[in-house]
């Protein structure tokens, strides 16, 4: 039997763009409780996105990048009869968004030699064009799910 769904913490919207998703992403970027630093990084990132894309509303690019980077299926491990099977399952919308945020953040942190706001802007622009490390991670996840499609009948 499944556990009771926890009451999720609802984040207050960002005060510049009035977006809950952006505030959640700022929380993902934050290190050691330094939220103001994370906000400054996002401000600088959005300035670079405005400059590079020519779009006056960088929130559109951000939303498109998050939508493109979120996987629709993933594999979960399940033990059946002494063997572990990778079972493909649909991804809930909250998890899809959480994975997209994590993959974009990790891809930006992975690049060395440039400030975070430059790396993050490049990754968001690439993800909005269906390119970049986060999109590659999503495609790898989909390939794993496709390869294990034969075990879908074990899904719970």
Describe the structure.
With 156 residues, the protein is mainly alpha-helical. The protein has one domain (20-154): Ribosomal protein S7/S5 (Ribosomal Protein S7, Orthogonal Bundle). The protein is 56% helix and 10% strand. The protein contains six helices and two strands. The protein has helices at residues 20-29, 35-53, 58-69, 93-110, 116-128, 133-147; strands spanning 73-80, 83-90. Strands 1-2 form a two-stranded antiparallel ribbon. Strand 1 and strand 2 form a beta hairpin. The longest helix is centred in the first third of the chain and has 19 residues, at 35-53. It is globular, with a radius of gyration of 18 Å. The termini are close together. Part of the 30S ribosomal subunit. Contacts proteins S9 and S11. Residues 2-149 form the Small ribosomal subunit protein uS7 domain. This is Small ribosomal subunit protein uS7.
Helix content: 55-70%
- Give the overall shape, derived from the CA principal axes: globular
The neighbouring-strand order within the major sheet is 1-2
Number of domains: 1
Total helical elements: 6
Average pLDDT reading: 91
Proportion in β-strands: 5-15%
What is the class in the CATH system? Mainly Alpha
**Computed CA radius of gyration, to the nearest angstrom:** 18 Å
Looking at this protein, list some descriptive labels:
single chain; mainly alpha; 6 helices; 10% strand; two-stranded antiparallel sheet; 2 strands; Ribosomal Protein S7
């Amino acid at each position: 039997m499944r556990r009771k769904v926890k009451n999720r913490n609802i984040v207050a919207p960002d005060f510049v763009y009035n977006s809950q998703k952006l505030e959640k992403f700022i929380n993902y970027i934050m290190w050691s409780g330094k939220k103001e630093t994370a906000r400054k990084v996002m401000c600088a990132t959005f300035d670079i996105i405005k400059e590079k894309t020519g779009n006056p509303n960088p929130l559109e690019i951000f939303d498109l990048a998050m939508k493109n980077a979120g996987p629709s299926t993933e594999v979960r491990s399940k033990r059946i009869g002494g063997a572990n099977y990778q079972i493909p399952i649909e991804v809930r919308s909250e998890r899809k968004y959480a994975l997209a945020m994590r993959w974009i953040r990790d891809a930006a942190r992975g690049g060395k030699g440039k400030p975070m706001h430059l790396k993050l802007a490049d990754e968001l622009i690439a993800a909005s064009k269906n390119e970049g490390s986060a999109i590659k991670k999503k495609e790898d996840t989909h390939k794993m799910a496709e390869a294990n499609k034969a075990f879908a009948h074990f899904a719970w």
